[in-house]
Amino acid sequence: MRTTGSSTSDPKALGAAGDAAAHALLCEALAQERPQDPVLSEHGVSGPAPRPGGRVWIVDPLDGTREFSEPGRTDWAVHVALVEEHEVRAAAVALPARGTVLSTRGPAEQAPRSASRSRIAVSRSRPPEFVHDVAADVGAELVPMGSAGAKISAVVLGEVDAYLHGGGQYEWDSAAPVGVARAAGLHTSRLDGSAPVYGRTDPWLPDLLVCRRDLAGALLDAVSRTRAEGSR
């Protein structure tokens, strides 16, 4: 998979080719190592049909195809998560352009946190409108980034303090990053404070908060206030 350099290829074609190649590689490897387990991704289900609450590998072969296709960007990722009984049991997030892999096997090495105001990672292309009000409420700075995996990894590494999303996602967008974040001791929840549930019949999982535990209460309260004011 390309990690550096530029390309004269059409960006959409480059992203599609990278996504397809990564998907084929992951499905082939999992079929060889765990042939009895189904694999769920945005491309559908490979292998046996998933059972409710059963083991399933949830993968995103290329999270951030747009960023992957833009020369010099590093905010794209590859996700692999093992889910059983609706919980992420093991997970890894690769950041190939940075030469970094984060996993549930051990704590991540966090960067020193700045003493300035909190930083919230949000989508660079479609941040939900309410995040501006949430940031103003808690006195935080918004940091646009690419893929969900890259944004959650930035929280794990201490480069930002939180990731706030409310624009719609699927399980493969967050299963592996959430597993890694939980293993690192971070708060992970839906925007109503409930735990995200994986391995469901419907893979739609529209909102998410990943942050330092000491910020969770303030951010959830700010989200609740902002949504209440917006509904008036």
Enumerate the strands of the largest sheet in spatial order, edge to edge or round the barrel: 2-1-3-4-5-6
How many strand units?
A: 11
CATH class term of the largest domain: Alpha Beta
Task: Choose one word for the global shape.
Answer: globular
Low-confidence stretches: 1-7
Query: Kindly state the mean pLDDT as a whole number?
Result: 91
Which percent range fits the helix content?
25-40%
Strand content: 15-25%
Indicate how many domains the architecture comprises: 2
Q: What name does CATH use for the topology of the largest domain?
A: D-Maltodextrin-Binding Protein, domain 2
Total number of helices = 6
Give the radius of gyration.
17 Å
Terminal Cα span: 48 Å
Assembly of the depicted chains: single chain
- SSE order, one letter for each helix or strand: HEEEHEEEEHEHEHEEH
Class from secondary-structure proportions: alpha/beta
CATH architectural name of the largest domain: 3-Layer(aba) Sandwich
For the biggest sheet, the summary is: 6 strands, mixed
Cofactor: Mg(2+)
GO molecular function: 3'(2'),5'-bisphosphate nucleotidase activity; metal ion binding
Keywords: Hydrolase, Magnesium, Metal-binding
Catalytic activity: adenosine 3',5'-bisphosphate + H2O = AMP + phosphate
Structural description of this entry:
Residues 111-122 have a biased composition (Low complexity). This protein is of the alpha/beta class. The protein has 2 domains: 11-99, Fructose-1,6-Bisphosphatase, Chain A, domain 1 (2-Layer Sandwich); 119-230, D-Maltodextrin-Binding Protein, domain 2 (3-Layer(aba) Sandwich). It contains 6 helices and 11 strands. The strands form 2 sheets. The protein has a 6-stranded mixed β-sheet. A 5-stranded mixed β-sheet has the order 8-7-9-11-10, with helices on both faces. A hairpin with a 2-residue loop joins strand 4 and strand 5 (87-95). Helix 3 (130-138) packs across helix 6 and helix 4 (148-156) packs parallel to helix 5 (171-183). The longest helix is centred in the first third of the chain and has 23 residues, at 11-33. It is globular.
